[in-house]
Amino acid sequence: MSARRTALVAALVLGIALAVVIVVRTPWQVLPTPPGGHVPIDPTAGLSAEQVHRATSFAALMRPTSLLALVLSLVLAGVFGLTPLGGRLVRAVARPFGGGWGWQVLLGVLALAALGRVVTLPLAAYAEVVRHRYGLSTRSWGLWLRDVAVATGISAGLTALTMLVLVWLARRASRIWWAWAAGGAAVLVILGSFLYPVLIEPAFNRFHSLPPGTLRANLLALAERNGTPVRDVLVADASRRTTALNAYVSGIGSTRRIVVYDTVLTLLPDREIESIVAHELGHVSADDVLTGTLEGALGAAAGVAALGWLLSSPRLLRRAGADGAADPRGVPLILFLVAAGGLLSTPVQDLVSRHIEARADVHALDLTRDPEAFIQMQRTLAVTNLEDPDPPAVWQWFFGDHPTTAQRVALAEDWARLRAR
């Protein structure tokens, strides 16, 4: 069997394994049908007409901006990845440093990342203007620029190192480089699950322990009742950037902690904060992080194997003006293929995510047995975070990684009807 066909077979086998994990581990039905059928979904989710209008107006401004930024990014990646222009750029930026393959990869990725950020920066700035106008963002423009620079730097740096390793592998093992790279990609996904809370989160927020008191005691008791060891309850200084509300459980094992935004402490009563945290504890109980890590590792490995197949296509390489994966001129093509693959997989990822989030909602209701607090919390989140309670179906299908507010309120009402039997 040829090396190219072997890569394709590996991609298909890993893809099938991923599909099996998704089918088996995704909670396709989170509640039985209540007597008399499900509660009809109220598209307003019980919000006032003014609140719905404000959220939909905000979304009407943000959605075109997000779509345009996505299209521009993909088009730019395509222009450099599917034409010799990307290879010329990679060689040009490395020429002052001797033009070695390592410099071509490293500086080429950084140059492409910088160009991508420059092209979409006006749209990002406009989106920030809109967030300021609606009171969702509290960042100064200096802090916004700092956040953009840090996010771009982290993303570009990690991508450059990844590409450097990939090209090195292709130069050392021209026939099976993709197999080594697939294993490495899977390992990186697993390591990222452990390292993200201790390396990436502190780059954007400062944290301090929630002082002793009733809320801290209740949250720790909630975690204990859930059977979840928690290292600490932390408060993130989110108000420096936003008025949005959020809480989450971060980390795995010894790094696990409950994190609440300081905005949550200001705006929500304890019962509703406990409902948010109970939802996040639901992800822990169902091992959603571990399942997501496994799915991510399989997806990454399958994607790299698919790259091994695609980067053996003479037609594709000819379009990019590259000789193969070992040629630094092929890096822009790799980046385009990764971006396109990520976009194509988005609806599947979001479909799975919506079901997992719905299961966590049911867990929160089971754990707190307080549907009134859950419903009020969802409405407050929608109003404060300017979430459209019932977005267009196509948008929700492609970009919605959580159930809509209207769906979550109806779910809580179904839960209450089932428990009232």
Structural summary, described in words:
The protein has 421 residues and is mainly alpha-helical. It has one domain (49-207, 276-419). It has 15 helices and 4 strands. The chain has helices at residues 3-25, 49-81, 84-94, 101-133, 141-172, 177-199, 214-225, 262-267, 270-285, 288-310, 314-320, 331-368, 371-385, 393-399, 405-419, and strands at residues 207-209, 233-236, 247-250, 257-261. It has a 4-stranded mixed beta sheet with strand order 1-2-4-3. A hairpin with a 6-residue loop joins strand 3 and strand 4 (257-261). The protein is globular, with a radius of gyration of 23 Å. The model has no long low-confidence stretch (mean pLDDT 92).
Features:
single chain; 421 residues; four-stranded mixed beta sheet; 4 strands; globular
Structure, briefly:
This protein is mainly alpha-helical and about 425 residues long. It has helices at about 5-25, 50-80, 85-95, 100-135, 140-170, 175-200, 215-225, 260-265, 270-285, 290-310, 315-320, 330-370, 370-385, 395-400, 405-420, and strands at about 205-210, 235, 245-250, 255-260.
Topology overview:
Blueprint: H1 3-25, H2 49-81, H3 84-94, H4 101-133, H5 141-172, H6 177-199, E1 207-209, H7 214-225, E2 233-236, E3 247-250, E4 257-261, H8 262-267, H9 270-285, H10 288-310, H11 314-320, H12 331-368, H13 371-385, H14 393-399, H15 405-419
Helix pairs in contact: 1-10, 2-4, 2-12, 3-4, 4-5, 5-6, 6-10, 7-9, 9-12, 9-13, 12-15, 13-15
